[in-house]
Amino acid sequence: IKKEKPDLIVIESVLPRANPDSALKLGYTQATVLLISEFFRIPTEFIHPTEVKKIIAGNGKAGKNDLKQIFLNLMGSIIRKETETEADSHTIDAFFIAMSYLLKNQK
Questions:
Q1: Calpha distance 37→32 (Å, rounded)
Q2: CB-CB contact of 14 with 30 (8 Å)
Q3: Per-residue pLDDT of the chain (107 residues; tens, 9 = 90+)
Q4: Neighbours of 6 (CB within 10 A)
Q5: What pTM value is reported for the model?
Q6: Are 36 and 1 in contact (CB under 8 A)?
Q7: What phi and psi, each to the nearest 5 degrees, are found at residue 61?
Q8: Rounded alpha-carbon distances, angstroms, from residue 55 to 34, 74, 83
Q9: For residue 72, what are the contacts with CB-CB under 8 A and spacing of at least 6?
Q10: Is 15:52 a contact under the CB 8 Å cutoff?
Q11: Cα 4 vs. chain centroid, distance in angstroms?
Q12: Mind spelling out the 3-state secondary structure of the chain?
């Protein structure tokens, strides 16, 4: 955070009906991010996973594979050239959470 100096942190909302163990772990992670953002006085916003999927794929029920294909179509060659590897699902999620927030709030 000190190096990148973000203006905003966008967090994907937890789906409580998803796997309870995963929801609990995500809740802990969100709490940690919220504490850090408060400590550094960085505003935070939440976005729902369905909203991310609808903005990116045009369908709120799009699957991980659908999003991965969209990501690879947009960024695949750049990512492979820069990192010599493919992006993992966490990288793809983070990218689309950020892009969804920007697209939703563009003026």
A1: 9
A2: yes
A3: 889 999 999 999 887 676 888 888 888 999 999 999 999 999 999 999 999 999 888 888 888 888 888 888 887 666 655 555 566 788 888 889 999 999 999 86
A4: 11
A5: 0.79
A6: yes
A7: -110, 15
A8: 24, 15, 27
A9: 86
A10: no
A11: 17
A12: CCCCCCCCEEEECCCCCCCHHHHHHHHHHHHHHHHHHHHCCCCEEEECHHHHHHHHHCCCCCCHHHHHHHHHHHHHHHHHHHHCCCCCHHHHHHHHHHHHHHHHCCC
- Token look-up 């909203």 returns 51
CA torsion 34→100→8→68, rounded to 10°? 70
Strand partners, 87: none
Tokens representing residue 55 in the block: 């903005």
